[in-house]
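Protocol step 4 of 6.
Sequence for Solute carrier family 35 member (Staphylotrichum tortipilum) entered exactly as in the expression construct, tag removed. Do not edit the line below.
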Amino acid sequence: MANEPTVPPTAAAPVLPKTTATVETYGTTTSPPPKDLDLRTSASSSDAEAAAVAAGLSSLESRPSTWYSYLLTAEFWAVIAVGQLLSLCITATNTFTTFLAGVGTNIPAFQTLFNYALLALIWLPITLRKHGARKWFSVVWRDGWKYFILSFLDVEGNYFTVLAYRDTNILSAQLINFWSIVCVVTLSFLLLRVRYRLLQIAGILLCCGGMGVLLASDHITGVNGGQGANMLRGDLFALLGATLYGVSNVFEEWFVSRRPVYEVLSFLGIFGVCINGVQAAIFDRTSFEGATWDGKVAGWLVGYTLCLCLFYSLAPLILRMGSAAVFDVNLLTANFWGVIIGTRVFGYVVHWMYPIAFVLIICGLVVYFLAGSILGDSKKPWLGASQREGVAGVGTAKLKGLREARRQGLVGAGTGEGQA
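Step 5 output, structure tokens:
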């Protein structure tokens, strides 16, 4: 379905006003400009930028398009590629965790602590350099509690999911993990004003169908069957972990659409270290007694940390270019990659249903974006029509609008840049 044009590109005039401030001199005394001049100029620039973004987005959306137009864009393939890279990261962390569990090193909270520490070490210096100390402390004062909630949801989602796999079988845990997609779609609809089209719902259901084929194959081959140690407790932990994951994904999408990625990841690392450190000190103390500590364990912990850090660093890109729903359905292929890697590492055998399941999930993602806007899910409804409340960062619709406005000469070069 082609999008009907709203504002023709030729109707937009240059939107940046030419502000000139004259300073009169009398003898040797120079009269300073009015104190509110900077505020007025800043407001004028903000209004001009919003108008430029609106004109740029209108120009992009009014171009002739077909139902498959978005599928031909580089951004669509970037969403698929980044999503599969994230799935491989998840598969790698699961593999390293399996290695650790195989030698009796079961320390779910402690092993994730290094990931949050690495995030803080990488992104905090960048944030301080970009913001400066004064602005950074103002962000802590204003938004610190929000970042604490985001970190808490993320840490506990990781922790309860790991606990679930201890007590229930993998089949039950993965089936319950579908609940995270339900949470994402529901919360996005209720809180973020996202309105899903029928094709998007169909795409999500098709992806879930592909995951169902994966689970059916595993059940047939006996890979994830069996009786868990405490099925009821494990299922409840899995349900709680999936809920926390869903809420944290929606919350993070809201954050990275409004704030720079380096700021979000730095606070996620800082508060994650604090929360996870306390949790590890309380719940992992007894696990240290029977754990194995040698060179192999150290190598597995390093591999786990690097893969998980890469996962956290790339996740904001897909949350900006796509959405929390796209993020979650992309991760459904992690089981497929897990078996492929398992054929080399653990001696798994690829069942004939696995390639079918993988194709179904990818087809579901294609269907999700059919007949949608050329901007895909990067245009966030909670940021307004001109995305004024958002950040002009990598993958955002606001940055695309600014670039289109610059291309048409509607805004000066460099306006709105410098926000990652």
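Step 6, annotate. The longest strand covers residues 25-26.
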